[in-house]
Amino acid sequence: MEYQALFSPRGVAVVGSASPGKLANVLIHRLIEGGCENIYAVNPKGAGVGPVPGVSSFAPLKNLVDLAVIAAPAATVKNVLTDCGKAGVKAAVIITSGFSEIGNAAAEEEVLAVARQYGIRFIGPNCAGLVSTQSKLVATLETSPPQGNIALISQSGAVGGVFMALAKEQGLGISKFVSFGNGPDLSVIELLQYLKEDKETNVIALYLETVTQGREFMRVVRDVTLKKPVIVVKSGRTDTGQRAALSHTGSMAGSDKVFDAALKQAGAIRVESLEEMLDLCNGFSYLPPLSGKKVMILTNSGGPGVMSADKADQAGLVVADPSPDLKAALQAFLPVHAGVRNPIDLTVEGTGEEYQKSLEQALKEYDAALVLYIGTPYLRAMPVAEGVAIAAAGSRKPVVSVLQVGSDLSESLHFLRNHRLPVFPSGERAVRVLAYMAEYEAYKTRQLTVPAVAGDERCLAGKPSLLEPEAMALLQKNGIPIPEYYFAKTREEALDGCHTLGYPVVMKVVSPDILHKSDCGGVVLNIDSDDKAAQAFQTIQTATAGCDFCGVIIYPMLKGGREVILGLTRDLQFGPVLAFGLGGIYTEVLQDIALRVAPVSREEAREMIASIRTYPILQGVRGQAKADLDALADAIAAFSQLPFHYEDIREADLNPVFVFPEGLAVADARIVGAKA
Amino acid sequence: MEYQALFSPRGVAVVGSASPGKLANVLIHRLIEGGCENIYAVNPKGAGVGPVPGVSSFAPLKNLVDLAVIAAPAATVKNVLTDCGKAGVKAAVIITSGFSEIGNAAAEEEVLAVARQYGIRFIGPNCAGLVSTQSKLVATLETSPPQGNIALISQSGAVGGVFMALAKEQGLGISKFVSFGNGPDLSVIELLQYLKEDKETNVIALYLETVTQGREFMRVVRDVTLKKPVIVVKSGRTDTGQRAALSHTGSMAGSDKVFDAALKQAGAIRVESLEEMLDLCNGFSYLPPLSGKKVMILTNSGGPGVMSADKADQAGLVVADPSPDLKAALQAFLPVHAGVRNPIDLTVEGTGEEYQKSLEQALKEYDAALVLYIGTPYLRAMPVAEGVAIAAAGSRKPVVSVLQVGSDLSESLHFLRNHRLPVFPSGERAVRVLAYMAEYEAYKTRQLTVPAVAGDERCLAGKPSLLEPEAMALLQKNGIPIPEYYFAKTREEALDGCHTLGYPVVMKVVSPDILHKSDCGGVVLNIDSDDKAAQAFQTIQTATAGCDFCGVIIYPMLKGGREVILGLTRDLQFGPVLAFGLGGIYTEVLQDIALRVAPVSREEAREMIASIRTYPILQGVRGQAKADLDALADAIAAFSQLPFHYEDIREADLNPVFVFPEGLAVADARIVGAKA
Predict the structure, then answer these.
(1) Predicted TM-score (pTM) of this structure
(2) For labelling alongside A108, which of A219, B324, B543, B610 has CA 20 to 30 A away?
C-alpha cells in the first residue's frame, strides 16, 4: 500500500522554499517536466511555481496528496512530517540533509518516531529522491532517464545520477530509481522485496557502501535472484583496515570478503564498476535467458573476432568450432574466402544477407551469438543490422552486437535497440555480459538449500574458552569426527592413557591460560614408550609452570592425511561466517581460503572445497590418494551449525583437521566464547 | 631516407582502376580530402579523378613521385613495382590482397624480389594503408584522425580502423598509422626503430597477432621503451593449443606466455583491449611523467571517490591521507563539511575555486591527482574545469579528470582537452592509466642489463641427452653448484663411492634409455649401510633390466632445503626461455611459474624469484630459515646462459634444486639435445 503512495501517488506536495534557484523550486520544475500532475507547493508564503498552486499548510491538501517531497530545513522536517500525517500523507521523500550523516542521529530518530506515529513510510533523509517512470514521477535533481525495466537502488545520490545519465546516453530504460540516503525507515531490504514483485522491473541494480542486517539482506537477495537478476556495486572493497583483519583464520573474514561471499551465496552478481553494471543491465534488460555457454562469434574482420574469442574463453564461455553439419550448411551459401570456424569470418565483403543466414544457422547449434561489424567510413552497417534483427527475431537465444566504424553507425545502433537487441562498445564487453548471464542461469538451476538451524544452548558456561578435552567432546557430540583421546591429570593417568590408546601418541598441555600450546613447549609428538611418556609429562609440566595446569590430553599420532583448517567467526553484519582452506603455508602464504556465511549444506560445503585453488591437492596429485571429500563436506556442514546451536560461541578454529582417504579427524580445536 | 618517401613523399601515385566506387578512386578522394598534393592516378586508361591527373604509365612521373599506393589486381603488382622502380619511386603501399594470406607466397616473394632490385621499400601487401598526419598523407580507407603524437602500427587493418575511429571520437591525435599487412618487407621491427626517432611521435601503440624474429623484436622494444612508451595488444592469448602446451616445466613456455614475459622484460605495456590502449595513449600523450605512486583523489561526491580509491589501491597506487601540514593548509580555506582526507570530498557544494586551491595544495605533496566532478543536470562543470586547468598549469605533475552528469560536460571536456588535460569516462579507468604510467617510469629507472652471451660450443656430441654424471659435470663447469657425486659402473665401485661420500646416500640409475628414473625403480633413497648399498645396486640393476645400463650415480642425501625447479626451453620465436618455480605441488597444481626470455642477469633473476606467489615460502615462513636467494639468483643467471654457450642444448631441467639457508645444490638434471 505505502508503495503505491510512494511510486504512484494521487498527489505530490513539495515542501520548502519555492523561490527560483531553491531546491523545492527545481524539484517542482522537474516534476512538471516529467509529466506529473496534481503537484502542490507547500511553503510558509504559500507561493506557487508556474502552474503549480502554493499553500502555506497541509490542511487544504487533506486526502489530495499521498506523497510529500521534503526539501525544507532539517530543523523543520519533524513538524512538516507531523502536518503530513494529519493531512493523510502516506509517504515521504526527505531530500533534506543534516541528520545522522553529520552525527545528528537524535533528529533522525525524532523524524522516524513521527513517521511511525502517523504511519508514514519514507526514504531519506539526505537522499537524492526517487523516480518512477511509469507514473511519470521525477522527484529528484538527477538526470531523468527513459522508461524501461531496470530498477536502481543507490546509497549514493551522485552514483545514482551518474548511472541514470549513462543509462540515458545508452538508451537504457529505468522503471524505478530510489536514492535511500541515511535510510532509517525504508531500507534496501524492503525495497528489494517490493521490486521482486514489481511488474515494471526485470533487472535490479544496487549501489551500496555499507550493509546492515546482513543475514536478512542475504535472505531477501536469495529470494529475489531466483526471479530477477540483482547486480551490485559495493565500494570500500580494499579498505586498508579490512586487509589488516586477515591475519589469522578466525578473522580472515574481513568484512568485504564476507560481503562478497554472501552476495555469491545469494545469487547476486557483484561487479567492479558502473560501466560493467550498465553493460549487464543492458544485457539482462533486453535478452532472453542464456541456457548454456556455447557462443558463436560472427565477424567481418579477423582481429576483433580473435580478441573477443580470447575474452570469451577467459570468461568461461565456450567458443567451440561448428559441427560438421553446421559447417556444411554455412559453406552452402558462404563464399570460399569466408572462414567457417568460430569466429565465422565473413571478411570485409560480408553482406547483410550473409550475416542473417549465418546467424540463423549458428543459433540452431549455439546458445548465443556475438555479431561483430567493423566497417570503414565507406561501408554501411544498416544492411547488417537488418540481417541481424531478422535472424534474432526467429530465435529465442541471446544475440549481442558490436558496431564499430562506419557511416551509419548511429542509425544502425538505434535500429538494433528498437528491436530490443543490445549493442556494446566492444566484443570484450559483450562477451563479459554473456558470461555473467550464463552464470546467473547456472545459479538459478543449482538450487542449494540453506539448512535449518535451531537451538539456544550454551556450551561455555561463561568461560572465555573451552579446554581442549571439552572442545573435543562438544565436536563429537555434534557429529564432527575426532580421534580417540585421553585426558590425564597426573603422570600415572597419562601412562594409563598411553596404554589405552597404544603408542605412538602425542601429548599436549591442557590449560585455560595457554592458547598457543606449541610455542611454549606444551606439545610433545611421537611418544613411543613409557619412558618417553613420563618424560613428556614432566617436560610439559615444567614448560608450562606458572600457568593453570589442568593436565594433558593424549591422542594417537595421526598420519597420512591432508591437513585442512576450518574456522568460524561472527561478522558484525552477517553473523556466523565459515572459513575453509588447506593447512599451513597454503592458508598463510597463498591466502587460499573459501568463505561462506554459515550455515552451509553438505552440497554447499562441497562447492566450498572445490573452490580453492589448491583443490587438486585434496583430489590427490602425484599418485597420492584422494582425500575423503564426502567426510570433509559432512564435517564442514556440521561445524557450520555450531554457532547456531550454541549462542555463546564467538569463534572456533579446527586447525588442523586430518583428512584421510577414508574419514577425517580433528587434531586441534579452539572454541572461544563471547566476550563478557 | 626511404621513410621520408613513405611518410612525406614529394608526389603520390595511386595505381588501380579510377572508376567511381573502385578502391583507387576512393583512395584518391581520401588523399585529396586529407590535403595531400601532387597526386597522380595511374591506370591503363590514364583516367584522372577530379583535380588529379591520370596517366597510363609511370614514365611521365619520373622523379615526380616518391610513393606508389597500389590497389591494382594482385597479378599485376609485380609489373607495377617494376615500372615504379624505373620511374624512381622509392616506397610503396601495397593495399592489394591475394598473396601469402591465401597461400600465394610465391607471388609475394616475386614482389619482394622486384622491390629489392629497385631499392623500393614497401608496406603490405594485404594492408589497410598508412596515414602521416603531419604531411597530410591519408593513404587508407580507414577513419582519418586528427594530428597528434600517437603512432599506431597494426597487423589488422580493421583494428587500426577501430582504433582511429575511437581516437577521433575521443579527440586523440595520431602522428602515423601503418597497417603492415603481410609485411614481407617493412616489418614491425624496422617501423619501431623509425618511430623511436620520429619527432612527431611520443607514444607508440601496437596491435599484433603474430610475432616473428622474437629476440630482435624484443631488443628493439627494449631500446624504444627507454625513450617512449610502447603499448601492445596481442590477440590469440588463450588459444586452446597454447594452454595444452603447459603440461610440464620445459614446455611451460606456451608461446603467449613467452610473449607476455618478453614484453614485460622489454618494458612494453601489454593491455587486453583497445579501450585500455586508447586510455593509455590518452594519458601518455598528454601527461608529464609520473614520478611516484602517491595519488590524491579530489571529488565532490563520496561514492565515486571511494570506487576510484578502491581501484587505485588494487592497481598498486598509494591513496595515503594528507600530511598534517597539508590538512591544515586545506582546512584553512575549505568549509567544515568538506572531508579533508584522501579522497578530499568537497561535497556537492564544491566550487571551482575550491577545486583549484585544493589541487594546488595537494600537488605539492602527491605525485599525481585525480579530479572527479559529479554534477546534476543543474550544476555547471565549467568553473571546475577552469579551476583544474589553472592548478594543473602551475604544476609539472599529472592531473587526470572525470566529468559525469551536468549541463555543460561537453564544453568542459573540450576545455580540458585544449589545455592538454586528459579526461576519462570513469575514475576507475583514470587510475588504471596512472598506475601503468607509474610502472613505466619505474621500469625506466630500473635499468636491468642484458648479460652478454657468447660461445658456439656443443656439449651433446650428437646424443639425444646427457647422462646424469655428464649433465652434473657440465653444470659444475658452468658455475652451477652441484652436490658431490660418484659415478659407479659396478657394485664394487658403488660401495667405494658410498665410502667416499659417507652414508646416508642416494643411488640412481644412469642410462640413456631412462628419462623418468623414479617411475621404474631406478632410484633408492636413504642408503645408510654397505648392505643396503649393495642391495640398492642390485635392485636398480634388476629394475632397469632391458635398458642400456651404464651404472649408478651416488649422492649424499640432501636435507633441509627448499625445492625449486629451473627449466630451459627454446621458443620458436624468442629462442631460449627460462622457467622458475617452487618444486612439486606449487608448480604442478598452482602453476606458479616465473618465465623470462634468457639470458637474465643476477638482478633480473632476483626479480624472477620475488615474482612468484609462493615467494614468502623462500623467504622463510613459520620460523623456517630463509633460503639463500643470492645463491639461487646466481644459479639462475648462470643456468640461463647455458643454451648460448652450447648451441646443441634444446631443453634443460634442474628438478629439484635444493636451496639451503646457505648455498644450493642441483639434485637432478636433464639436458636434452636438439632433435636430429
Answers:
(1) 0.92
(2) A219
